[in-house]
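Slide 14.
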Amino acid sequence: MFDKLEQLEARFRDLEAQLSDPEVVSDGQRYTTIAKQHAEIAEVVAAYRDWRQTGEDVEAATEMLAESAGDEADLAKAELDELAARRAALEEQLKLLLVPTDPNDDKDVIVEVRAAAGGDEAGLFAAELREMYLRYAQRQGWRTQLLSESASGIGGVKEAILEIVGRGAYAHLKHESGVHRVQRVPATESQGRIHTSTASVAVLPAAEEVDVEVNTNDLRIDVYRSSGPGGQSVNTTDSAVRITHLPTGLVVSCQDEKSQHQNRDKAMRILRSRLLQAEQDRQAQQRADARSGQIGTGDRSEKIRTYNFPQSRVTDHRIGLTVHNLADLLGGDLDEVVGALRQAERESRLASIQDEG
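Slide 15: predicted structure.
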């Protein structure tokens, strides 16, 4: 770990030097990129420097304690204990700071809630989950929009799709993906029997706009003489343009304009738009695959969390956490559960790093 910290500090010093370089300062795009890299590692470098300085302070306090007696020794011992505790706390902080983060964590999210097993009761539960996420987002100060909804039965929903916009939305909500199970006496149950129903939740990082850059080395450009209907020549110059994008095999031809330059520009605009569409389609397929993997079958036995109404108990089965504030949780108070899941994720990532080391 400490070898990595030394490398990060060296990288930090290098970035600081670059930010002071007039050549970098004069290049806005380059300066912005370097400044972002500098900011990304500033916190961990500051903590590392603090940890290292505290280590030097511990050594000095140890020497002072060895040379002290009486009340002076008691004061030196108290200072040494405080410094040692601070150093240990900084070491734990450094471990967590070095845990790799999910690149999607800062993204906005699309939350899809669907009724699963349980008929009308499942639809009612899905509607309650929808409201839970809307209220949680409101508590976080995030913006929400209901993108689509399909109603069912007696006030429930078959499906609800929400967009939640806010910094860290994916980091906070990604662990909600899976099957949620509810145990309660349905409003339609006349004999007071407890029923079990389920709803499935998928949390997807919102897709960002894709910018397409075309490498000229990936293009084959052919020019030829444009022709009208039946092969009749339109003009006597090679003004028509055919552009082939070699990596994808996409071909665009344009001969509407009399100028080869104009036809080439138009063909390039068309090519870029088709490449953009292809990339968006690919991302859409990835989201569809992710959605399929997250939702599962919706069967009653497949669950990540159980909401037990008779006992006002909510249990997250992945981390063994149980809370007894069901009404508050459905009202949007997800902080305890979300915090525990995020901590479990960090600890898991940290354990992976230590195993690799």
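Speaker note: Residues 3 and 9 are 10 Å apart (CA to CA).
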